[in-house]
Specification:
Order of helices and strands of chain B: EHEHHEHEHEEEHHH
Radius of gyration of chain A: 15 Å
Strand content of chain A: 15-25%
CATH architecture of the largest domain in chain B: 3-Layer(aba) Sandwich
Number of strands of chain B: 7
Oligomer: heterodimer
Number of helices of chain A: 3
Structural class of chain A: alpha/beta
Shape of chain B: elongated
Helix content of chain A: 25-40%
Order of helices and strands of chain A: HEHEHE
Number of domains of chain B: 2
Strand order of the largest sheet of chain A: 2-1-3
Number of strands of chain A: 3
Number of helices of chain B: 8
Number of domains of chain A: 1
Largest sheet of chain B: 4 strands, parallel
Helix content of chain B: 25-40%
Strand order of the largest sheet of chain B: 3-2-4-5
Strand content of chain B: 15-25%
Largest sheet of chain A: 3 strands, parallel
Distance between the termini of chain B: 25 Å
CATH class of the largest domain in chain B: Alpha Beta
CATH topology of the largest domain in chain B: Rossmann fold
Distance between the termini of chain A: 26 Å
């Protein structure tokens, strides 16, 4: 994964409707519970299964640790979608 | 406790949008219980405002904080620096807290993020009902513990009125007739004789009719 794909675009306002580039992909953060969803993602890795590089996984000790503020902070920083798994 | 409801987000934004710096300030007691004005809600509101500022292209530094109670001086110690350095404060406290902050910081604009709605209880998680109007002259001892001042739509002191039907108020089918509740309770207590007593004219001078009230303890 290159540095360019890792970079999250900083929002520049005021926001205007724009043409969506053909190669645009949504930036997704996945909050995954250590004991189930993250373990499943880990297993997928062991099985050499691939998942899209525009999904960034954040491991939580439990999905109960997921807080409003984590999701809002992700959106504040320009994430397009949040995936909560647990 | 005091129950409040957050103002519509657009209304909040219109109040604060012209500031370059804003502190979103929670009050972690009454209004935190009703999930409207606690420190957590302050954090959420600050985040939403930051996103709105970005969308609108407004350069605004928005921070969030909070204390346990915005209606008492000692609690402000931990937030003093933050508030003194603020250009404006958006308080998530009830009307009391907002005024208290405004009084403490004379040159800082303070805005309310909540509409303070009533004094009530928690019937169940997320459901609050009005139970007291702080009339200053409690009649609960005569009415079986049911307050006709706050729970009867007409504040009738010798009820029920003619609008009571099947235990409900004529205002809405969702509102219990307070006087039906009074009668039921007095019956359960075996004190229906109390119901026959005519309540005298209430002294409303102890309510808001006497102007803003205060209470001072001797020896403090």
């Amino acid at each position: 994964m290159t540095a360019a794909t890792e970079k999250i675009e900083q929002p520049v306002g005021p926001e205007k409707p724009q043409e969506i580039p053909v190669d645009w992909k949504a930036n997704i953060v996945a909050f995954a519970c250590h004991y189930c969803a993250f373990a499943a993602a880990d297993l997928a890795g062991v099985m050499r299964l691939s998942y899209p590089s525009n999904v960034k996984v954040v491991r939580l000790p439990c999905s109960g640790k997921l807080d409003h503020s984590y999701i809002l902070r992700a959106f504040e920083r320009g994430i397009d979608g949040v995936f909560a798994a647990g | 406790m005091i129950v409040g409801e957050q103002k519509p987000f657009d209304e909040v934004w219109e109040m604060v949008k012209n500031h370059k710096q804003l502190t979103v300030f929670g009050c972690n007691t009454c209004v935190a219980v009703c999930h409207q004005g606690g420190n957590k809600e302050a954090e959420i509101l600050a985040s939403l405002l930051r996103m709105r500022a970005t969308q609108e292209g407004v350069d605004m530094d928005i921070v969030n904080g909070g204390i346990e109670r915005q209606c008492e001086h000692p609690f402000f110690e931990s937030a003093q620096e933050m508030l003194e350095g603020s250009e404006a404060v958006l308080s998530l406290a009830c009307g009391i807290g907002v005024q208290f902050v405004a009084e403490k910081y004379m040159s800082t604009p303070v805005y309310p993020a909540l509409n303070t709605t009533f004094l009530g209880d928690v019937q169940e998680d997320g459901f609050f009902t009005e139970k007291c109007q702080a009339c200053g002259d409690c009649v609960l001892g005569l009415t079986g513990g049911i307050c006709p001042v706050s729970r009867c739509c007409k504040r009738v002191l010798n009820g029920p009125c003619g609008g009571s039907t099947n235990g409900k108020c004529e205002i809405s089918k969702d509102i219990d007739c307070a006087w039906q509740l009074v009668v039921n309770r007095l019956e359960a207590l075996g004190k229906l004789d109390d119901y026959e007593k005519i309540a005298p004219v209430k002294d409303w001078s102890k309510d808001r009719a006497g102007g803003p009230r205060s209470f001072k303890l001797e020896g403090f």
